[in-house]
Amino acid sequence: MRSALLGLAIITLAAGASAHAGPSADLERLGRAIAERPSDPALRLERASVLRRLGRLGQAARELQTVERLEPTSRALYLERAQLWRDRGDAKRALLDLDRYSSSGAPSVLALRTRAELLLALRRPEEAWRDYDRAVALAPSPELILARGQLDEQRGNLERAARGYLDGLERAHGAVVIRLALIRVERARGQLDSALTHASALVASAGVRAEYLLLRAEIHEQAGRPGPARADRSSALAELDVVLRARSTALHHTARARALAALARRDEALRAARHALRLSPKYEPARALVRELSSPEGGG
């Protein structure tokens, strides 16, 4: 029974923490609860996790020692202690605890993701990929699908990256970030018809289409189709003019500057980019575009 309670505590911890005012409030709540039930391993495990997230690793370790005395074979203890070892920079000990966790019951997304990150730190990328793949099978979140695919991209395995993103797109119900990643890989592989198909899907589903029209224009240009590229940029510019009359934002002014630059209207583009930077001085895309358009060869 205690093991089941510990498992439930660790799985629901992140969600429970978000419902409170923050880690400090959690510590106060847990301190009161532990004063009433000092031998409750689930409460102590939760406190160890909060302490770890606050960076109080020594206190977290002492709390986990107490949990180990109360429930020495707890799977949740192995998982929390693995994360503590990770935060202390001891990947090998973290992996040992994750192996104990994995060998004693069903896999979990948190354990697989943590193990993948540790394997990457130890430069064991193929093993990390397999753990990400298993995690995706359990819970196909965009975050995990992207982590798996980016590992393929970094290693130059673009075909497997494309397959993973395509499969992930279906599993994650067409998540935009996955479709954008797939477009990036298809362009890198020279699969421009596929990239155009997915860019068109983004255009068709978006409320404000300008960014995706500009992306599709880039793909048309890459494919040697200047006419459709110019048409998409002109459509994006027209839409942005309407949007900016309703709301002036750095993001949309920057997109407008990109459209103008691609249409060889450099002076207007530079004015739009500078206006975006005035609206948001720390907005790096606007800053980078101003630098590019201000250089002698920029914007064309």
Can you tell me about this structure?
- The protein is an all-alpha fold and 300 residues long.
- The chain folds into three domains: 1-87, Serine Threonine Protein Phosphatase 5, Tetratricopeptide repeat; 107-195, Tetratricopeptide repeat domain (Serine Threonine Protein Phosphatase 5, Tetratricopeptide repeat), CATH 1.25.40; 225-300.
- Helix content is 79%, strand content 0%.
- The chain contains 17 helices and no strands.
- It has helices at 2-18, 23-36, 41-53, 57-70, 75-87, 91-103, 109-121, 125-138, 142-154, 158-171, 176-189, 192-205, 210-222, 226-246, 250-262, 266-279, 284-294.
- Helix 14 runs antiparallel to helix 15.
- The longest helix is centred in the last third of the chain and has 21 residues, at 226-246.
- It is elongated and about 70 Å long.
- It starts with a helix and ends in a 6-residue tail after the last helix.
- Residues 1-20 have low confidence and may be disordered.
Task: Show the helix and strand layout.
Elements: H1 2-18, H2 23-36, H3 41-53, H4 57-70, H5 75-87, H6 91-103, H7 109-121, H8 125-138, H9 142-154, H10 158-171, H11 176-189, H12 192-205, H13 210-222, H14 226-246, H15 250-262, H16 266-279, H17 284-294
Helix pairs in contact: 1-3, 1-5, 2-3, 3-4, 3-5, 4-5, 5-6, 5-7, 6-7, 7-8, 8-9, 9-10, 9-11, 10-11, 11-12, 12-13, 13-14, 14-15, 15-16, 15-17, 16-17
